Amino acid sequence: MAADNNAARRSASGVRMKSTANQFDPKDAVWRPASANDIDAIARSAKIIHPDLPERPEVFAEKLSPFPSGCYVLVRHEEVIGYGLSHPWNLNCIPPLDSFLKGIPGDADCLYVHDVAVLPDVRGHGSAARYVDLIEECARKIGVDFLVLVSVYNTQRLWALYGFEVVNGSELDIKLRSYGPTAKYMIRSLKSP
Ligand SMILES: CC(C)(COP(=O)(O)OP(=O)(O)OC[C@H]1O[C@@H](n2cnc3c(N)ncnc32)[C@H](O)[C@@H]1OP(=O)(O)O)[C@@H](O)C(=O)NCCC(=O)NCCS
């Protein structure tokens, strides 16, 4: 899904961005496959973006190792300015935050987006949209029919734009606890209507 022109002109808060000589050019931001060498940069970005939802660098590393094809970093001139981590998983199962996966299930039926996060000053340029495109392709390649994620910080509206729908349930609510009070479990079906 490409960013529309409006998204490219607005900041994440919806405020129109002023044109300056140093203005961020969205064309400079590129998603590339993540590697173990990016873990420190991912952990540093996570500290800035998710100060209330801390995770250890080794937890990020363990998510990358079994399924690198779901893991990307957003880079601008080699500098990491965001990351997206996804792995095959089972529907309605939510790994607690800051926990090890201990492998991925053999009967995975979805691609679970552990996190997609972009540094504040480069938001609102369609980077999340481009990451969703990448993992949609990835999910289709491995033959799973669903993308799932836990929306935090009231980002449901954003994910709804990309076809994700909130799923409620008391068991899910219990599993969502480590993600904070705004967390919602969301699913996007990739099946043809
Ligand atoms: C969520 C996040 C990754 C989005 O990144 P982004 O590159 O700004 O996203 P996009 O530019 O693709 O966003 C597209 C649309 O979503 C909107 N949007 C972006 N962030 C949003 C937010 N936090 N809440 C609601 N809408 C948001 C944008 O305004 C835009 O809508 P528009 O086209 O109607 O203007 C980024 O805001 C972020 O890192 N947030 C903090 C971490 C986080 O919450 N991650 C999600 C965990 S599930």
What's the topology here?
Blueprint: H1 5-9, E1 29-33, H2 39-49, H3 57-64, E2 72-76, E3 79-89, E4 110-118, H4 127-142, E5 146-151, H5 156-161, E6 165-167, H6 170-175, E7 184-189
Parallel strand pairs: 4-5
Antiparallel strand pairs: 1-2, 2-3, 3-4, 5-7, 6-7
This protein binds coenzyme A.
Broad CATH class: Alpha Beta
| Proportion in helices | 25-40%
Mean pLDDT: 88
Oligomer: single chain
Number of domains: 1
Which residue ranges are poorly predicted, with pLDDT under 50 across at least 5 consecutive positions? Answer: 1-21
How would you describe the shape? globular
Strand-residue proportion: 15-25%
Classified in CATH, the superfamily is: Gcn5-related N-acetyltransferase (GNAT)
- Strand/helix succession: HEHHEEEHEHEHE
Radius of gyration computed on alpha carbons: 16 Å
CATH topology-level fold name: Aminopeptidase
Report the structural category: alpha+beta
Largest beta-sheet details: 7 strands, mixed
Straight-line N-to-C gap: 18 Å
Q: Under the CATH scheme, which architecture would be assigned?
A: 3-Layer(aba) Sandwich
Topology, number of strands: 7
Question: What is the spatial order of strands in the main beta sheet?
Answer: 1-2-3-4-5-7-6
